[in-house]
Amino acid sequence: MGEVRLLLKCREIPHYDELEVYEAHGGYQALRKALQMDRQAVIDEVKKSGLRGRGGAGFPAWIKWNGIPKDDDKPHYVLCNSDEGEPGTFKDFELMSRAPHQLIEGMIIAGYAVRARTSYIYIRGEYVECARQVRKALDQAYRAGYLGTNILGSGFDHDIYIHMGAGSYECGEESAMMSSLMGERGMPRLKFPHAPLPVIAGVWDCPTLINNCETLSCVPHIILNGGEWYAQYGAGTKNSRGTKIFSVSGHVNRPGNYEVEFGTPLMDLIEMAGGVKGGKLKGIIPGGSSMPILPADKCEDAIIGYEELMEKGSMVGSGGCIVLNEHTCIVHFAWRTAEFYAHESCGKCTPCREGTRWMVQILERILQGKGRMEDIDLLLEICDHIDGRSFCALGDAAAWPIRAFIKNYREEFEHFVKHGRSMYADNPESQKMFPPKGYQRYNPMRYEYTYGSVLADASV
Amino acid sequence: MPKPKHVEPKLVNIEINGIPLQVPEGELLIEAAKRIGADIPIFCYHKYMKPVGMCRMCLVEIGTKQPDGSVRKMPKPQTACTLPCTEGLVAWTESEQIIKDRRAILEFLLINHPLDCPICDRGGECPLQNNTQFYGPPVSRYIEIKRHLPKAFPLSKYVALDLERCIHCGRCVRFTEEISGDAQLAFLFRGAQMQPHTFQLTEFTSRFSGNVIEICPVGALTSRTYRFRARPWDIVTQKSICSMCSNGCNLYLDSRSGQIVRINARENPAVNETWTCDKGKFEQTYMHAPNRLTQPMRRRGGDWEPISWADAYDLLLARINEARKTGDRQAIAAIAGQRLSNESLYLFQKLFRAAFQTNNIDHRLTRYQGNLQADVAARLGYPTSGIEYGDLESAPLVFVFGSDLIEEQPMIYLRLRKAWRHYGVKVLVAYPLSTPVEEFAEVSLRYPVGGELDLVKALLQRLSDSFPASPSQSPNPVSIDAAASLLAQSPGVIILVGEKAWNHPEAQSLLLALVELAQRLPDGKLALLLPEANSQGALDMGVLPDLLPGYASVDDATARARFEAAYSVPLPAQPGLNTDAIFHACLTGEVQVLYLAGVNPVERHYDPALAERALSACDFVVVQDALMTETAHYADLLLPACTFAESEGTFTNWERRVQRFWKAIEPPGDAKPDWLIFAELWLRTMRQTPPFNPREIMCEISELVPSYADCTYEMLGDQGRRWE
């Protein structure tokens, strides 16, 4: 239990992003080992490790690996999802900037296991520093013969390309990422059972393995030390194995990335981060802003694990752990969350496009002191109409937190509506967190600012 | 893989609303639901486009039947428009949950819709209105300020965009991407600010832009030619066929107080699916042109003198009788237009062959005026086209020869694009200039202008070494080699031959070379693309100097005997003059009376100067047309005719599909349908009962022309019939 530094080993070693340092600490040994192994043996090793997707959904990684056709003649692709856009999550940032070789090694092993010639790393547009680090590491790996043709004399060829995003949260969704990679508009595509899975028809209709940056970074450790070794971490949980990096932020004394074993109590994680700052704990969003909030009483006995947190009513998600202290006004927080999703909705499907914006408008009205009591139930109903009806998970991600905020802190909303001001309006600690007076919010109702005057004088 | 001609579908058992049924595997649930009459509301789904599931209107609850008979329900509702049917699928389209979800989706869609239905062109025929009436919430809970955006932004000459009304179904964007392929429209911005628009707000320049107006489920895209001219409930809709080219698109003509205000596509899966081109949709306005002829007129000095129909007939017949008495057989000649209906063309040839005893009739204005029967049909077994639209999808390779398809045959272009996109049909194109087909062609042969014959000879030479070597003036030998090997490797090639072949100086040799090419290729098919709406019908109806209706030669006594028995007069056995010969005979003074029915040689003949000189030289020129054309200025007698919208009849399109059109509006003034003019002349000269309506004429045609034997109006229906 507690902190285990596998992926974040880089922290203790200076210059871990340089090839020599990485090699000196056992780097690329896993690749050498994997290239000696049978492809199926590599997949079996991942299966034994119990590795699950670290991007949010927690889908067992080996099923994807094993699902790639084994005897077709189409090109296969590996796609690394480093479009880390979830508010509160910054684990990929550290993994890419401090241990890029770890990720690259994992990708080459994945490419070897699924017979892919080409891989792509889709890096969030804002992560320029990461892209530089990955670029540097790729160049070093090419020079050392870990990439390119005939890798380490095994006859296996592999290339990795970097693709930078352009600032869309939606492109972190795997099918939208494929669209974006292919040069289309970053909108999600049909999924199973409406269309074949990406492992059958993904990028350019070819089998594609899509894994999160953290998932792929785990692979070298699994191959080097064996699946059973990895599975011993988190053995106490129902079905979560290994370690997970949590990006702890908010009202804690030492915010940052903490890699913990599954099975660690949630409060231990907060203690690692230096404990709650500025007051008592109000609630924790354990898995990034799209996950439901856990109020303080539920946090006490919460255990980190996919099923364990699900039972508490939240999810591990991408590990963006946001801690709120008792002075936080949840209505303001809900508004800011809703605004993010309204801004990031791609516009493809009706519930998400219209619903997210409607929610922001209602919350904004409440903040202006013009709320009505029925607005709270209306918000809940809008959440019900978005959740499960939208095209991709962005709609769900927009609805879950709002619903959880209202369910858990309904009295704060009612107070705000009744009095036209926050429950914490007179609290000097809370006032620090309110947006400054005269703060010009992004207003999704104002279209002129995007259109300019181009259309203003046009008419039939 | 090209689409297989016919596959026996594998059936799967599914259940919708408790009704078990069998449907082909992979059929979309929304189509399967139509089989039992379950209505699933839609916005973004369109039968001829790839489903996307954007609007979420068609949500249904689904489950799968387990081996033990129980049903496992999926937790979330799924879109019916994207779900392929599989064995054991169970769906509920009317459950309580679904009713709630539909109401929610409509509430979402309506929060930003301006609800300006009273001033919206779509009002009355709007899917958003209809779905709201059936499934929507009675009131809105939205009290915020609605979005405001530019209204009626002119995207192009034809299309106006109202961004406030848009519900972001993406049909228009998908149309330009998937169907027309010009990718002119795209979504700008994202989320609630998303807008369909052209890139950089440039002009929407597509040849198929009108379709987006029809497929828009709200009034966001409206027609600038129809805006505010009528409401859906005060227009009269009539079925029709497009008269602009030989593609034979099925149309609806919408008229209001005798004016055609709008033209929409009519679905015919075998022909235009549900598309039209902009030419057919917006430019087909000649029936209301200011230069319509409304009264018979004769030339008096430099002026036109209006006369009655009776006087016009008397004058015409007097001149014809005079010419027949003084001159020989060559003294009378007639040219018919290729936009006349089959019925009119049939009566036309009957009138001139039987009543005026001349074979000097023709309809062709191209350089090729040879005998198609001898040149093509005798060798290949069919006179012009051996294929239909659907064949393009199942061919391995289509060779587009000498045709700018998008310009000449827009609907064939769309179908070819679909065949390439969906079924992987390879395309080979030969054209002297850049053409949009090149964008998806496997090999593109750009030859020097006029080099068609050299190109075909070069190809023939590559295909067999014994053929004499071609002159050096051929395009890049590398691409010719590639083209030849492609042709040789694909059995069942379809060669589409366009306008460049008809108007080649050596048109006959070129046509023979192309026939040879089709014969040389394994299972090769030739399709000669015709220029006008009823060019094929004019050939079929024997408006040719040497062929009777049904491609029987005029000097074939047995064939003639059948017609003679029907008309109870002997017919001339000597082949007559073709168009060019008629014009030359006019110049020498041999032809004294020239009858031009719905034809405009001064503008359309390949050599307008020759036509002009011939018309000036001819003694007496009769022009029967709907419009005061350039040709009409040379007339001595003008007879006002009807357009296709004002009369009834049939057109035969390039694939030999005979299709009916109906009378949509009343003719202006004294104008008469072409068939009626010929029937009245027949009555006056032969003293025989003429046919009273086109239906009767078609009965006569079906008795005399074997290929039209089952083309009576009862058999044609409204989707037409292809004769074999």
Strand arrangement in the largest pleated sheet of chain B: 16-15-28-27-26-17-18
Question: DSSP strand (E) fraction of chain A?
Answer: 5-15%
Helix content of chain B: 25-40%
Molecular shape of chain A: globular
CATH-derived topology of the domain at 306-366 and 535-637 and 647-722 in chain B: Rossmann fold
Total domain count of chain A: 3
SS elements, strand count of chain A: 9
Number of distinct beta strands of chain B:
31
Low-confidence stretches of chain A: 444-460
Interface with most residues: A-B, 43 and 52 residues
How many DSSP H or I helices of chain A?
20
**What is the ordering of alpha helices and beta strands of chain A?**
HHHHEHHEHEHEHHEEHEEHHEHHHHHHH
- Structural class label of chain B: alpha/beta
Q: Tell me, what is the CATH class of the domain at 306-366 and 535-637 and 647-722 in chain B? A: Alpha Beta
How large, in whole angstroms, is the Cα Rg of chain A? Answer: 23 Å
Arithmetic mean pLDDT of chain A: 91
Amino-to-carboxy terminus distance of chain A: 70 Å
Largest pleated sheet of chain B: 7 strands, mixed
User: What is the alpha-carbon Rg of chain B in Å?
Assistant: 29 Å
How does this model look, in words?
The complex is a heterodimer of chains A (460) and B (724). Chain A has 460 residues and is an alpha/beta fold. Chain A has 3 domains: 7-231, 3-Layer(aba) Sandwich (Rossmann fold), CATH 3.40.50.11540; 243-325, Ubiquitin-like (UB roll) (Roll), CATH 3.10.20.600; 330-431, de novo design (two linked rop proteins). Chain A has helices at 19-24, 29-36, 39-49, 61-67, 91-98, 100-113, 128-143, 174-181, 213-225, 227-231, 266-272, 296-299, 306-312, 330-344, 350-367, 373-386, 393-408, 410-419, 428-431, 448-451, and strands at residues 77-82, 118-123, 159-164, 208-212, 243-250, 256-261, 281-285, 294-295, 320-325. A 5-stranded mixed sheet of chain A has the order 6-5-9-7-8. In chain A, strands 3-2-1-4 form a 4-stranded parallel sheet, sandwiched between helices. In chain A, β2 (118-123), α7 and β3 form a beta-alpha-beta unit. Chain A starts with 18 loop residues before the first helix and ends in a 9-residue tail after the last helix. With 724 residues, chain B is of the alpha/beta class. Among the domains of chain B are: 11-106, Ubiquitin-like (UB roll) (Roll), CATH 3.10.20; 306-366 and 535-637 and 647-722, Rossmann fold, CATH 3.40.50.740; 372-528, 3-Layer(aba) Sandwich (Dimethylsulfoxide Reductase, domain 2). In chain B, the strands form 8 sheets. Chain B has a 7-stranded mixed sheet, sandwiched between helices. In chain B, strands 1, 2, 3, 4, 5 and 6 form a 6-stranded mixed sheet that branches. A 5-stranded parallel sheet of chain B has the order 21-20-19-22-23, sandwiched between helices. In chain B, α8 packs parallel to α22, α13 (452-463) packs parallel to α16 and α19 (579-588) packs across α21 (608-617). At the A-B interface, α14 and α15 of A face β5, α2 and β7 of B.
